[in-house]
Each structure stands twice: as C-alpha cells, then as structure tokens.
Amino acid sequence: MSATLRISPLLSSNGKLCLESLNVDPQDFNVLTHGDFSPSNILFKYNENGAPSEALILDFQICKWASPTQDLLMLIILSARKDSSYKEFDNIVRIYWEYLIDFLRVLKYKKPLPQLRELQSAIYKKNNTFSAFFAVMNHLPGDLLPVCKENNLHTFNLEDEVGKSFRTKVYTNPIFVEVVKELYPICCNRGLFNFEDY
C-alpha cells in the first residue's frame, strides 16, 4: 500500500490519535515523559576534544505521565538521517533499558524492574505509537531543512499561501524525502503507522 493511501486517513484521525496518546495503562511501567524529546531539546556541552561532556534537557512544556517509550520513539525518529539510528532501533531500545535499570537501582526503586520485553512491547501499544507518527509528520520535516529565518512553527502553521508554500517546501525537501523513503517502511512494518483501529 502506498504512503499516501496509508497516511491520508490518519490525518483525518489526528485528534483521535492525540487523545489515545493520553491514555495510560497503569499496568505498564510509566514515568514523567518530556513529550517533545528531540535532539533539538538537548543542550550539549563539549570538552576540549569536541566530545559531549554534559547534557541538559530543555523545553518541558508538554510533560505527561506515560510510557517512556513515547519519548524514546520520538528521539529515535528525530535522530533519523539517511543510514542512521532507526536501523539500530532495537539496539537503542536495549541500551536505553540497560541505563534505565541502572538508574532505577541507584534510586532504590522498590517495585519490580521493567523487563526489556515489556519495554519493547509497550512501543507497539496503541497509546504509544502516536509519538512516531507525530515525529515523522510534524518535527522531522522541519528538522531536516537548512536553518533559515522562515523555518519555524509559525510559518509552518500559516493558513495562507506563505504557509502552504512553506509546507510544500518542507515535505518535498530531498533530504526529508530520502529519510522517509527508508524510515516509513520500517515504521509500517513494525505496525507503528497502522492505525486502522481508530
């Protein structure tokens, strides 16, 4: 099935997708999520060798109680470049899980520690998959544009010809098109973009 045929019904169900992402399964391992966890919301300090030495997370405007997989999905997708992180999807999830367990032990977390398979399965739950779709359709196109004055959320949301022209530029950007050609089938084959049940 073509990307256009799969995505078109989703755009009309966008509100339902958003609302579903607010549903929290109390049986899952849940945390206070960032809600917009992208590389552009992480400020790095670099050492004299050019390697990151510290990181500071910014922009806590849409935090919510949810599965950490919502932030994890967004970060993996927004780190996407051609031949990039989404090809290491399972490894990134495993590495995240290992650090999560280490931190929970340091914090003397009293409840049962989340299992890797539980984290992996939470990624595919209906209430968590919106993060992947939102990242691809809303954040990634702008992130892959060269930096310029007009590249901002205000211009993207304009309903006039300026906004329409900008959105066309964003979604036809050759870099975005190449990344999505590789990323889209991966998301579809994992069931992340199969929202027929909405």
From TrEMBL:
<dbReference type="InterPro" id="IPR011009">
    <property type="entry name" value="Kinase-like_dom_sf"/>
</dbReference>
<feature type="domain" description="CHK kinase-like">
    <location>
        <begin position="2"/>
        <end position="106"/>
    </location>
</feature>
<dbReference type="Pfam" id="PF02958">
    <property type="entry name" value="EcKL"/>
</dbReference>
<dbReference type="InterPro" id="IPR004119">
    <property type="entry name" value="EcKL"/>
</dbReference>
<dbReference type="InterPro" id="IPR015897">
    <property type="entry name" value="CHK_kinase-like"/>
</dbReference>
<protein>
    <submittedName>
        <fullName>IP11066p</fullName>
    </submittedName>
</protein>
